[in-house]
Structure formats: C-alpha cells, structure tokens
From TrEMBL:
<feature type="signal peptide">
    <location>
        <begin position="1"/>
        <end position="17"/>
    </location>
</feature>
<dbReference type="InterPro" id="IPR029046">
    <property type="entry name" value="LolA/LolB/LppX"/>
</dbReference>
<keyword id="KW-0732">Signal</keyword>
<protein>
    <submittedName>
        <fullName>Outer-membrane lipoprotein carrier protein</fullName>
    </submittedName>
</protein>
<dbReference type="InterPro" id="IPR004564">
    <property type="entry name" value="OM_lipoprot_carrier_LolA-like"/>
</dbReference>
<keyword id="KW-0449">Lipoprotein</keyword>
<dbReference type="Pfam" id="PF03548">
    <property type="entry name" value="LolA"/>
</dbReference>
Length: 197
C-alpha cells in the first residue's frame, strides 16, 4: 500500500465518531457501559494511582456521573475535584492550587453527563478479559489530545468500575486502580465542590 493512501486511511479512521463501526456485540457492550456509568448513584473506593514519573499515590475515590474526587493520603494529603469542565488539585502541604481545563484532558471524557460515547467521542477499542471488560475512548475530532481506557469487572452481566488508564496529549501515562468498591453510596453534593484557591 502506498504511504499516501495509508496516511489517508489513518486520518479518515481518526475522524470516525461514536461506535457504529464496531461489531454488534461490541456496540452492545458500549451501550451497557453507558447505562452503567449514567446510572451510578454514588461510588466510593480505595485507589492506587501510578503517574508518569512511576510514583505511586493512594487514597479515597468518589464518583457520581459528571463528578470525580480523589482524596490523596499517600505520599501526602492532596485533594483533586473534577467536573463541569474543570479540574482543581489542592496540595494541602504546600497550599498550592492547580486549575486545569478538562476540554483537552482524557479524564474529561468520563465526566460529561449524560455519558454518550458517540458524537464528539470515538470508541477506539473494546476488550473482554476473564470477568472483565474495558473500553477506550478519545475525542473524535482530535484523538491526539489523549486516550482514556475505562476498566470494569463484568461478572454475571454486572459491571463495576475498577480502574482508569490514560495517556494525555504530552504522552504522559496515568493509571488508577480501585479496590473495596462500594456502589449506591449516598454522597453529599458538596463533596464535589472544588477547593478554594
């Protein structure tokens, strides 16, 4: 195949949105994932995060559709609150507060509500494992802005969020692994109020 033709095919593939091009069984999996994520009334878990510098952090994870909070305990106290297009990270040790837009951050793909993996989102991969399911998504119009892989346990047709893996536009990788997941938890909305600063 000529290089120019290969490049054209790759670019046209990048412009594909949604998941209509997937096999029917995978489309069904994506619809199950959408329904699950939109139906969560409150999820809390312990997390371990591995960042781009190979460092490890630990803490508590809280999620409702459209909002996410990470309360870091190790290596030192920090809080991250994300939703409504923004991410705020407050380092309680230094007092530093960082504000980021989710517009070009792969985490933003998880924090739209309702979640729909079509339109401006492209499903790039659906994979099954032994009792597991994962979906990878990117921005349809600019997939180079990052990729997010959302991981679930899938036992007897019941999904449970167990992890997130991502790579941003600068090719920085991150991973969050959940344990002791509790679903249906009542979470007070003020928990997702960004820290001041």
């Amino acid at each position: 195949m000529k290089p120019a033709l290969l490049t054209l095919l790759l670019l046209s593939g990048c412009a594909t949105s949604g998941y209509g091009n997937l096999p029917q069984s995978e489309q069904s999996d994506v619809r199950r994932i959408e329904a699950y994520l939109n139906g969560i009334r409150g999820l809390q878990a312990a997390f371990v995060q591995r960042g781009p510098d190979a460092g490890q952090s630990e803490g508590r994870f809280s999620y409702i559709p459209g909002h996410l909070r990470l309360d870091y305990i190790v290596p030192h106290p920090m809080e991250l609150v994300a939703g409504e297009g923004h991410l705020v990270l407050a380092d309680q040790g230094t007092g530093a507060v960082t504000h980021l837009s989710l517009k070009h951050n792969p985490l933003g793909l998880l924090l739209k509500y309702p979640i729909r993996f079509d339109g401006d989102v492209q499903v790039t991969d659906v994979r099954h494992g032994n009792g597991s399911l994962q979906v990878s998504v990117a921005q349809a119009d600019n997939p180079s802005q990052g990729l997010l892989t959302i991981q679930f346990s899938d036992v007897n047709g019941q999904l449970s969020l167990i992890g997130l893996q991502g790579v941003d536009a600068r090719q920085h990788h991150f991973g969050v692994l959940l344990s002791d997941v509790r679903q249906g938890v009542m979470i007070v909305p003020s928990v997702f109020t960004p820290p001041a600063g």
